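Forum > Structural Biology > Help requests

Title: Can anyone predict the 3D structure of GNAT family N-acetyltransferase?

Hi all, first post here. I have the sequence for GNAT family N-acetyltransferase but no way to get a structure on my laptop. I'd be grateful if someone could post the structure tokens.
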Amino acid sequence: MIITGDLTIDDRSTWENLFAGYNTFYGRTLAPQWVDRAWREFASGERMHALGARLDGELVGIVHFLTHVSTTSADVCYLQDLFTDTKARGRGVGRALIEAVAEWARARGCARVYWHTQASNTAARRLYDQVALDKRFMQYQIPLGS
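Reply #1:
Sure, ran it for you. Structure tokens for GNAT family N-acetyltransferase below:
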């Protein structure tokens, strides 16, 4: 059975390993100050949020998300990062985490939950196509600074 919920101080090292795995998947390595900042933000629960998924008491998945205002609706929830340990994939962890974020956002009056993924991330997209609508938007970025 998958249990989702808040991360605890005791989850820090496992969360860091899972977050490192997520970033490795996207070809990046985070500087320690960004990892520390994220953890502090999750602990304060004001701007950024995190949930974990546990199988048999072991943390095997994480999700990070935030809310922001919208010009056309109530606030919206952006699901920024989602990662499941390779040993737990295919067991419903990702789905459970997405559902937990949707429940969290619904309870706070958000109009929707949305996220991005790379077009080549076919494994994740199989799940996403089952639980959400593909709105066919492209993402553009202007990198600022270093």
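The chain has one domain: 2-131. The longest helix spans residues 93-107.
Shout if anything looks off.
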